[in-house]
Amino acid sequence: MRVAGSSDKPESAAFIRNFAIIAHIDHGKSTLADRLMQRCGAVEAREFRDQMLDSMDIERERGITIKAQTVRLSYAAKDGNLYELNLMDTPGHVDFAYEVSRSLAACEGSLLIVDATQGVEAQTLANVYQAIDNDHTLIPIINKIDLPAADPERVKTQIFEVIGLDATDAILVSAKTGEGIDAVLEALVSRLPPPEILRDQPLRALLIDSWYDAYLGVVSLVRVKDGTLETGQKIRMMATGAVYQVDEVGYFSPKTHPVPRLEAGEIGYVTAGIKSVRDARVGDTLTSEKAPALSPLAGFKPSIPVVFCSFFPVDASDYGRLREGLEKLQLNDASFSFQPESSAALGFGFRCGFLGLLHLEIVEERLDREYNLDLITTAPGVVYKIYLADGTTLMLHNPTDMPDPGHITSIEEPWVRATILVPDTYLGSILTLCQERRGEQRDLTYAGSRAMVVYLLPLNEIVFDFYDKLKSLSRGYASFDYQLDVYRAGDLIKVSILVNGEPVEALATIQHRDAAETRGRALCERLKDLIPRHLFKIPIQAAIGAKIIARETIPALRKDVTAKCYGGDITRKRKLLEKQKEGKKRMREIGQVQIPQSAFLAALKIGKE
Q: For domain 13-191, is the CATH number 3.40.50.300?
């Protein structure tokens, strides 16, 4: 046993605690992490800023956590021992659930934070189920008790009724003021189990996360399960077989802190001059080249992208930079995938898969900020199963690749099981919204004055603006979480958009037949306002095959050709106008319509205004 203050490192794994902080969006995860770091002296007062672990500018601007972050804290407990606390702050949004799952796999316990005013939300449930799947010990924490509307007793009851977790010993905390932080730290050391370790076994370390550093190459975050990871040691990636020599190991506190070795039970980083991003796969197992382990660790379930869209560089010469940027971002965010594709209209680009629209927006913004890439983004869509007459099955990622309807026997679309928590005041409008989106109600239960509705919904119907409408109809009180359920046959058709008679691939979508005309008309009306006027008339049409279902026309810009015509016969002006008319007719046949990138993005957000 080591007395507090005698060293900054415990002798035994009995004094190590690895834990994640999980909660719904905006319930105070990052703020609690800030208070824990301050209480343990990890950050000096002059260096402290709010959201310390949200390192990306985009996280700080939006006030959300996108990347799970880790930090090691040293805590001198009341029992006189010095404990090593490895904290992992996780995102709350459903689009970043894969970040949460990876963090939970590296820990033995979780702090479950619930807002004292809002209570249990949809993502609270989703994260709890993930923690239970990882055999976590859960410590319920009721945050924001300093707010006038706080009702901790009601929330304790709700945690028991909705989650089934006994919350009588839940810790009452105000992460903003620091009240209850000491109780949280004591609960961490007394109620969470230490890691189970095998120091004498061959090295096995789970690769939790990776990112690219221009000077160090690939930096990997690892959880050492068995053995010891040391500087100078030769390691092998068990999935790829790549061998490297370790340059440095250490931990974050939250700054990098190099150490000679990481032992079983610890979480830290490793650099080994890895230049190829493919050699550092998230979920891989690191082992010793000299005495390798016989079997790898379980790793993570691969993430399943649910929303797909294509990125094309505005400047074709940026294709190589786009590929490099996507590779480095995929290293840092294993939950999105990409593969090359080409388009007759847009050139060479990549078809990318995401966990949701917010995930798509974040990746696109990171490509713009971090790699200075100007991109054209196509309409987001989901993956359809197409059964052809010759007996083959096709997975359709891109509407432009849809086969001839005469060769198709049936089309199946993905459905999701959605959980919505909403005050009963707004329940009627939420049920109406789900019915409009072809939803099927599966369950409706109450916890106090809040209703929990379970619906089966087509993923295509919730991809665009469902979340926004849900928040609007419930004045922000509804919360929403979903999981992929099944594929079902549906009456689906391809809606094409033609501008000046030419199809615009980026705006083609697959819609249910009942909604096709409404969607097509809305797109045409939006594009009419977004595409700038040209010197010739531009027809905008929505079509199903050869049938036009909607049309709008952008009038031509008319130059005043008679401005310099002073006096004279009327025939002189008429001659100039006829000449202009002939020119416009010729221009309409050969003219190119320039559609700005902003028009593509704004056209896809139909229904958000």
A: yes
According to the CATH classification, is domain 307-380 in 3.10.20.600?
A: no
DSSP state of 405: G
Give residue for tokens 């849900």.
470
Task: Give the bridge partners for 252, in sequence order.
Answer: 256
Cα–Cα dist 28/100, whole Å: 16
- Taking each helix axis from N to C end, the angle separating 29-39 and 181-191, rounded to the nearest 10 degrees, works out to 90
Helix 427-436 vs helix 466-473: angle between axes, to the nearest 10 degrees?
160
Residues in the chain: 609
What is the dihedral sign for C-alpha 267, 194, 141, 121?
Answer: positive
User: Does the pLDDT value for residue 4 go beyond 70?
Assistant: no
The fourth-level CATH superfamily of domain 494-603 is Elongation factor 4, C-terminal domain (3.30.70.2570)
The pLDDT of residue 457 is above 50: yes
pTM, full prediction: 0.66
Strand partners, 524: none
Which residues, other chains included, contact 310 with Cβ-Cβ below 8 Å and sequence gap of 6+?
341, 343, 346, 349, 350, 351, 352, 377, 378, 398, 506
Determine phi and psi for 267, rounding to 5 degrees: -115, 135
d(CA 354, CA 335): 7
Architecture (CATH level 2) of domain 204-288: Beta Barrel (2.40)
Strand pairing report for 16-23 and 82-89: parallel
Q: Which CATH class is domain 404-490?
A: alpha beta
Query: Which residue, 190, 377, 205, 368, is CA-closest to 283?
Result: 205
| Residues 57-95: tens digit of each pLDDT | 444 444 444 445 678 888 887 877 888 888 877 665 555
Percent of the chain with pLDDT over 90: 0
Query: Which 3 state secondary structure label does DSSP give 181?
Result: helix
